Amino acid sequence: MNPLHRLTHGNARWAVDKGVEAYRDGGVRGLVVKTVSFVEKRRVRAVAFSPLGSTAGTYRGAVVMLADVDPPQCWHYRVQQKRQACAARGIPLVVVLPHSSTEVLSQLQLASMLIIYRQPMSMLLKEVLAEARRLRIPVVYEADDIVYRQDLVAANPNLGTLPADLRAAVIAGAADYAAALAACDGVISSTRPLADDMARGVSGASAVIENGIDAQMWSIARGIDIDCEAGQITRSDGQDVVIGYGSGSRAHDADLAVAAPALVRILAEFPQVSLRLFGPVAPPPVLARFADRITRVPILPQGEFLWEFAHVDIALAPLLDVPFNHYKSQVKYAEAGLVRLPLVASPTVYATYVDDGRTGFIAEGDEQWYQVLRRLVTDPDLRRGVGRAARADIARWDVDGAIADQFEAMLATFNVRVAN
To answer: Is 215-396 CATH 3.40.50.2000?
Structure first.
């Protein structure tokens, strides 16, 4: 097979992989939207962020990151936040979209490190890895979900609502992520449990760079605060309470079902309570009789989502206690805290982050979910107090501070050194 044919075949496989991912996350509509978006993105091959001048903190050569703009929430947390963290410390960063090996190879020539973010193995990636090896550039694989573990993906109950052929494709695709991970020197992830699991597949080190709160999110939060003070966003002082749950893909139906028995009791007991679902998650069948009190909000850009999310009174983060979920991050807690919402969450993942009763609530079992929700529904002062405490707590993930520190620590871990 000649090189041109190999590259064409690799790009076709990449397109198929992305099509499967789009359909998984958004169905036929998601596939159409992604196809249109891809045609537009072909006009902009690479997103390069200029080096920030020769300061004491500038690194020799840019950090090159191979990443795609989809899913949008992943691009925001794992790519755009790195841009801000690097800008805060004078570290040059170049982000290249995985559509052309020519641009990736060109950017590698003077790079000090290559980060491969959530990419499956492909002909393009094989070519990029070979060039990085020739140049002796450290290559680290980054993921924020356990997409590379075929056993855990297959056992994830949330895939049960997908069509059988799509579910099989998602499970099979995990092998391509695993192959890409195994070809790298080390790993980066959003949590320590995930970093430790990923590290089993490589010979090198691991590093954690958490999902953070960036300047854009702080700005949106300040705007929401102003709207609340001006009365443009109002929260209930009585029983007219809105409970909200957000999801970025279709694969969260089984998670929401964890809270469903408690929600049935709350909606039956309090006629003025309603449920607002953000994203493509489906309401559990047991809630069908409350359909007139359930509203749906489509997937929105980050800023618009946060503004809409700020209109609810209580946020939910139920998670099934299954291995696939043990590696998730604190994003739902961070977003709820940013807009001063009290979060009710499962102990899976969230017990690590939430100070139960002060910055949020941990609920396990139908009765505890019901009791916590009932308490919040009937006590507006409690909702406000916990929301304020959560806002103060999530500041520990400020991108210019802690997340930038973690990025610098990651560079040190992989011996990417400051120029003399």
So the answer is: yes
Transcribe 248-302 into DSSP letters: SSSTTHHHHHTTHHHHHHHHHH-TT-EEEEESSPPPPGGGGGGGGGEEEE----H
Among 33, 10, 7, 5, CA closest to 21: 33
Q: Report phi then psi at 187, rounded to 5.
A: -140, 155
pLDDT of residue 252: 78
Please measure the distance between the N-terminal and C-terminal CA atoms of the chain and give it in whole angstroms: 45
CATH 3.40.50 correct for 3-211+399-413: yes
Q: Each residue of 13-44: pLDDT tens digit? A: 445 555 655 555 455 445 544 544 444 333 33
Q: What is the pLDDT of residues 278-299, one digit of tens each?
A: 998 989 999 999 999 999 999 8
Domain boundaries, the chain: 3-211+399-413, 215-396
Reported as type and span, the H/E element at residue 64 is strand 62-66
Q: How many CB atoms lie within 10 A of CB 104?
A: 26
pLDDT > 90 fraction of the chain, expressed in percent and rounded? 71
Q: Which of 383, 365, 370, 355 is nearest to 242 (CA)?
A: 383
Query: Same CATH topology for 3-211+399-413 and 215-396?
Result: yes
For 62-100, the pLDDT digits (tens) are 899 999 998 888 999 999 999 999 999 999 999 999 988
Residue 181's identity, in one-letter code, is L
